[in-house]
Structure formats: C-alpha cells, structure tokens
Amino acid sequence: MFKKISGFLKTNKKILFLFLITLIVYAFSGQGKGAYYNYFVLMADAFLHGRFYLVFHPSWLNELVLWHGRYYTVYPPGPAILLIPFVEIFGTAFYQPALSIVLGAFNVILCNKFLSKFFSKEISFWTSVLYAFGTMQWYHASVGSVWYAAHIVAMFFIWLGILELVNKKRLFLVSFFIGFAYLATIPSALAAVFVLIFSKEEFIILGKERLKINYKNILLFCAGFLPALIFSAFYNYVRFGAFYDIGYSLLPVFNEPWYRYGLVSVRYIPVHLMEIFTAMPKFVQKPPFVIPSLFAMALWFVTPAFFLILLARFRTRLVFASLITVLFMSFPSLIHGGNGFTQFGFRHALDFLPFLLILTASGMRDKIKPIGIILIILSILVNLWGVVMINFLNTWTL
Q1: Left, alpha or beta for 135 (phi > 0: left; psi -120 to 50: alpha)?
Q2: What is the Cα–Cα distance from 38 to 282, expressed in whole angstroms?
Q3: Measured between alpha carbons, how far is 195 from 175 in angstroms, rounded to an integer?
Q4: 8 Å CB contact between 111 and 127
Q5: Residue 379 · residue 357 · CB < 8 Å
Q6: Are 248 and 185 spatial neighbours (Cβ–Cβ below 8 Å)?
Q7: Chain centroid to CA 183: how far?
Q8: Where are the alpha helices (DSSP H) in the chain?
Q9: CA distance 304 to 301
Q10: Is the link from the previous residue into 288 a cis peptide, with omega within 30 of 0?
Q11: N or C, where is the chain less crowded by C-beta within 10 Å?
Q12: Residue 6: its pLDDT value, please?
C-alpha cells in the first residue's frame, strides 16, 4: 500500500502541485461572498431533521417558494446531500463555498486523469492548467453560491462518470455518477449522450447481416440512473405532489423581461447564442478601462484558448462524441428564459465544460505549440482580471 502511494506521489508531482495551488487560489479568491446564498447548507440541515422544507425564510434568500405554508428551495438536492455529514458536524454555520472550492480543485485532477488516456502528458497538463485558471470554473468555484456550487458538483460527477467509462467501463457506475450530476444540475443528465456515442459498441453492434443489441449493458446503464431518478421523483412528489420538478414555475419571475415567452421557449435560442458568442465587457475611457459584465460575456472572450477547438480532430470518435454532447447539453440552457446571471461568462456552459476541454486538448494536436501556450496564458489573465475586478474590487456592470 505504502509503495503504491509513494509511486503515485512520485509520478504525479506536477498534477498534485497543481491541485494544491488550485485549492489555495480558489480558497483565497472568493472573499466569502457566496456563503450568504447557503441554500444547500439549509437543505442539508432540513434533510438531517427529516424535512424537505425550511422552517424559516431568511431575508437574503430570494429564491424560496411558498407552497402550502412551507418554504422550499427550487434547486436539485445533490449538493445538499453531499453536505449532510458536514452540516451534521458544523451545523448551518458550515461554509458552503468549501464544497465548490474543494471539488473544483479535484475536478482539475480528474480532468488530467481523463485526458492522459488520450493525449500526451504535456497536453493533458496544460489543459488542466487552463481548466484551473483559464476558465469560468475559477470564479464560480471560488464564490460557491448556490447557483455556482451546483455546476461544480455536476462537473465533478460527470468527470467521474466518463473516467469510469474509459477505465473499468462499469456501466452501472458510469450512469450512477451521471445520475448524481443530474441531481446537481438537470441538463447534466445529457452527458449520457457522450457515453452512447463514444462506447456505442457496448450497447449496439451493427453487423453485416443483423443488428446485435446488448440488452445486459443497456439494462445496467439504465439501472445506474434509477437511484437519482427515483429520489428526484420522490423528492418532488413529497414537496409539490408531482413527480416532476415544478419549483421554478412557482417563482415570481415571469414578469421579468427575460421570461417574456415563459420559462422555456425556442424563441430564446438566438438571444442566448448572441450572448455566448458576442457579449462583451464594458469599455470605458478611464481606469480600469474594461469592466466585466455580470450579465453575460462570450465564451471565447473569457477563455480565448477555446479557439483551439477549431483545430480539433473531429473525425475521431472522442472529439465527435464531445462535440455532439456539447450541442445536446447546451440546448436546455438555450431554450431557458434566464441566462444564469449573475455570472462571469455564461455559467450554464459549466455543465458541458468538460467536453469543451476535451475539444480544446484535441485542438492542440500532438504537441502544444507557442500559440497554444499564448492562448492559455491569455485565458488565465482574463480570468484573473475577472476574479480581481469582481471579488476584490467589486467593480462590475450588468
């Protein structure tokens, strides 16, 4: 056992150092702002006391819904489930951002382990550095408010799911992890698309004469989702008397201009596409000259290294599966009225960020070139600017 641990530490010094640096930087970056929006801590406390509702309505939590005289959160319960042991020990004073800070740092390790299955150590490491400090994860993980923590938890379980897929391929575990990601953010369930495309032979084989279906693997994969689906249905039924989630529809938000077509509509797609590709910060003629917009900013502006995706090897199954998964996972956000603000960038893209990183790593090809390093450094500088401006200088605009 000690030899295995020693061997792991010796061969993974760089990524372990990156993990520690990420953990420290995230911990000092948030300034405690997300701790006020501790819905998940209060949910965990309710679970510990055998309740699915809150017994009081804190004035600073504005997204609780009143239903039959009780206050409920509208968020999926996954992160609250993870917090149960910590709330049991520390009570409702537990610092909620600790969840996203720690899991955000672990996400970097999981990313590196997955990428190293397909790319060189150099490309895997540089992509992991990009993930840690050159993407939206830095800001959102460091703040750790309810909206942001959910995305970090979802990514953690998506990484676990696809890592299991390329390691031991235990399909029940693969879908179990993705199912738990669904309990953090609903669109994360669509990460299953990656599994179905990347490992399609595990389910269906197109023979010359007939179609072979592996019913055992299909059943195992479906069974892995059942714990999350059953708990979600039970959770919703106990709260609202319906097996599907109606929490969002009870929020008094439909008089807002961004919900003018209702909660979901295809009419929102062009609006959000414009935000994803063209939204910019505010430029002013005096210092600091450029001010981040918390409403939305283009993904390529926040992470210029995403331009490398244009060079990805789209004919490989890994890249093709990642691209199709991004398209599927982005759809729920594109038809949803709100875009997720406040945020740094377009936070709903965090759900499919693992697959954007796979595409980016592929775009580096066989060896990282100077242009790749320049784009990664530029991405880090942009995200450093965002964290400093928003968290430390409290300078931003909508």
Answers
A1: beta
A2: 30
A3: 9
A4: yes
A5: no
A6: no
A7: 12
A8: 2-11, 13-29, 39-48, 78-90, 97-115, 121-133, 137-143, 146-166, 171-182, 192-198, 215-240, 269-278, 299-302, 317-334, 353-363, 370-387
A9: 6
A10: yes
A11: N
A12: 56
Tell me if 115 sits within 8 A of 123, measured CB to CB: yes
Helix (H) or strand (E) holding 72: strand 70-73
The alpha-carbon radius of gyration of the chain (Å, integer) is 21
Query: Closest by alpha carbon to 385, among 305, 293, 270?
Result: 293
Check the CA dihedral 99-344-133-388 and report its sign.
negative
Q: Walk along the chain (398 residues) in steps of 10 and give the mean pLDDT of each run.
A: 52 88 97 91 97 88 87 94 98 97 98 97 97 98 97 98 97 98 97 97 82 94 97 94 81 79 93 97 94 97 98 97 98 93 96 98 94 98 98 95
Residue type, 306: F
Tell me how far apart the alpha carbons of residues 23 and 105 are, in angstroms, rounded to a whole number.
5
DSSP letters, 97-127, are HHHHHHHHHHHHHHHHHHHTTTS-HHHHHHH
pTM beyond cutoff 0.90 = yes
Q: Report which residue type is found at 101.
A: I
151-166 exposure pattern, b = at least 16 Cβ within 10 A, e = fewer:
bbbbbbbbbbbbbbbe
φ/ψ region of 333 (left if φ > 0, alpha if ψ in -120 to 50, else beta) reads alpha
Q: How far apart are the first and last CA of the chain?
A: 53
The pair of three-digit structure tokens given for residue 166, joined into one six-digit string: 């390329």
Are 292 and 389 in contact by the 8 Å Cβ rule? The answer is: yes
Smallest CA-to-CA distance from 118 within 326, 312, 306 is with 312
Query: Rounded CA gap, 133 and 115, in Å?
Result: 17
Residue 60 DSSP one-character state: T
- How many angstroms separate the CA atoms of 85 and 91, rounded? 10
Q: What per-residue confidence (pLDDT) applies to 301? A: 98
